[in-house]
């Protein structure tokens, strides 16, 4: 029997979000109904609202979540009713060409729920990243549920569901930072700050945090930055030179663009040491273009990698980082800037645009 709950939707491009009633259908054989306890307000949700992902409106927003399994389909074996889970958008299929090669982090056919959630008039909703958790309950595939320590704070560990894992994984997985290496992170929102914290966790000796906002660079020191650069008023070349001066004139072993715009991309590219690694984890918009001389691409060597979800594997990484949080080894709780109600999502978007928070988290 279907259930009606309250949720937050984006009905049309750029319009303020709406709080309305959402219909959750009975789960299909491999589906799960999750009672949502927390959902982070992620920039990706704003991108859905503004049409920067696709135009499959209306969207049921929200995806960075923790909650409790409330109902399961008849064929579900991965979780049980009552399990505390963090939701993920990489429910690997195990059958596509990437999975068959053992490259599951690049699965081409990740699972989603078999049924659509709807408005009360029957209008089908597109769930953000296949999750749609700005709602009291949501419907997902069982593989989108990763069990973690039930004693953990939902508002903190739920952030592993997207942005914090993206930044953390960009450093640890994609960037493959090694003990004693140097790292520069460009852009200190939630993702960039997580990359700073990930660099510290990986054992980087020099961690340079770069942002326009001095408040953020100072906060980055709390997450592990050893040096900071306030780039406001500086041209791109001056920022690059400042990074080089902090690394003996050579540049960093790893440079991470956590913004996804051409100025920060270029700063990260040219701030690397010869044959250094560059990671792009900031998500570009649909019209962005990369424009550098081909000889620079060829001549500098190294590697340039996008970080999709921080190249994480939820079943491996979410429980591990939840335990590191419990041990006091990774500060997930520091990313929770404020706890808000479901009806405050639109206001949280404005707060995020101003750069006043790392994460606003809806607590239900």
Automatic annotation (TrEMBL):
Q: Which cofactor does it need?
A: Zn(2+)
According to its UniProt entry, one GO biological process term is:
formaldehyde catabolic process
Q: What class of enzyme is it?
A: oxidoreductase
Under Gene Ontology molecular function, one entry of this record is: S-(hydroxymethyl)glutathione dehydrogenase [NAD(P)+] activity
Q: Does the keyword Metal-binding apply?
A: yes
All copies of domain Enoyl reductase (ER), residue ranges: 7-364
InterPro entries assigned to the protein according to its UniProt record, in alphabetical order: ADH-like_C, ADH-like_N, ADH_Zn_CS, ER, GroES-like_sf, MycoS_dep_FDH, NAD(P)-bd_dom_sf
Question: What Pfam families does its record include?
Answer: ADH_N, ADH_zinc_N
Q: What is this protein called?
A: S-(Hydroxymethyl)mycothiol dehydrogenase
Q: What is the lineage of its organism?
A: Bacteria, Bacillati, Actinomycetota, Actinomycetes, Mycobacteriales
């Amino acid at each position: 029997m279907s259930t009606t709950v309250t949720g937050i939707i984006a009905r049309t491009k750029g319009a303020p979000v709406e709080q309305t009633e959402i219909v959750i259908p009975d789960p299909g054989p491999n589906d799960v109904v999750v009672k949502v306890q927390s959902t982070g307000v992620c920039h990706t949700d704003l991108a859905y609202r503004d049409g920067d992902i696709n135009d499959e409106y209306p969207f049921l927003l929200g995806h960075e979540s923790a909650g409790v399994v409330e109902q399961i389909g008849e064929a579900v074996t991965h979780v049980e009713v009552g399990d505390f889970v963090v939701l993920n958008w990489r429910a690997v299929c195990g059958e596509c060409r990437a999975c068959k090669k053992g490259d599951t982090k690049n699965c081409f056919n990740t699972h989603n729920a078999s049924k659509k959630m709807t408005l009360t008039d029957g209008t089908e909703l597109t769930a953000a990243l296949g999750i749609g958790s700005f709602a009291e309950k949501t419907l997902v595939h069982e593989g989108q549920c990763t069990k973690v320590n039930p004693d953990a704070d939902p508002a903190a560990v739920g952030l592993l569901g997207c942005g914090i894992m993206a930044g953390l994984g960009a450093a640890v997985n994609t960037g493959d930072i090694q003990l004693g290496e140097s790292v520069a992170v460009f852009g200190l929102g939630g993702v960039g700050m997580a990359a700073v914290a990930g660099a510290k966790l990986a054992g980087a000796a020099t961690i340079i945090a770069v942002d326009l906002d001095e408040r953020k660079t100072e906060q980055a020191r709390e997450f592990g930055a050893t040096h900071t650069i306030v780039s406001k008023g500086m041209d791109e070349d001056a920022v690059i030179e400042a990074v080089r001066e902090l690394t003996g004139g050579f540049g960093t072993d790893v440079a991470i663009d956590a913004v996804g715009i051409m100025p920060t991309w270029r700063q990260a590219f040219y701030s690397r040491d010869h044959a250094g690694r560059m990671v792009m984890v900031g998500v570009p918009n649909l019209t962005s273009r990369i424009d550098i001389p081909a000889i620079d691409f060829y001549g500098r060597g190294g590697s340039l990698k996008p970080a999709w979800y921080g190249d994480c594997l939820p079943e491996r990484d979410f429980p591990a980082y939840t335990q590191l949080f419990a041990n006091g080894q990774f500060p997930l709780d520091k990313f929770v800037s404020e706890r808000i109600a479901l009806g405050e999502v639109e206001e949280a978007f404005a707060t995020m645009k101003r750069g006043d928070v790392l994460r606003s988290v809806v607590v239900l």
